[in-house]
Amino acid sequence: SSSRSTAESAVTRLPTPSVAPAPSVRSMTVVAVGGDTMSLRMALTSALRRAPRTASARLPSTARMTISSTTAPFAASTVGSHRGARPRPVVAAHVRHGVRPASSFTLSAAETATASSTADIDVDAAKAAAAAQGEAVRSLKEAAKKGDATKDDVDAAVKKLLELKAIVEQLENPAAAAAAEDAGAKAKDASSAAPSAGKDVGVTPKSQDFSRWYLDVIRECELADYGPARGTMVIRPYGYAIWEAIQRWMDADFKKSGVQNAYFPQLIPYSFITKEASHVEGFSPELALVTRGGGKELEEPLVVRPTSETIVNNMFTQWIQSYRDLPILINQWANVHRWEMRTRPFIRTLEFLWQEGHTAHATAEEAEARAVQMIDCYRRFAETVAAMPVIVGRKSRVESFAGAERTYTIEAMMGDGKALQAGTSHNLGRNFSKAFDTTFLDEKGETRYVYQSSWGVSTRLIGGIIMTHGDDAGLRLPPALAPVQVVVVPIAQKNKDEAAVATAANAIAATLENAGIRVKVDDDDRNSPGWKFAQWEMKGVPIRVEVGPKDVAKDACVVARRDRPGKEGKEFGVAVEPSSLVAKIRGTLDDVQGTYLAQAKAFRDANVVDVTTYDELVAAIDAGKWARGGWEGSDEDEKRVKEETGATIRCFPFEQPAGPHACIMSGAPAKEVCIFAKSY
Question: pTM of the full predicted structure?
Answer without folding.
Answer: 0.73
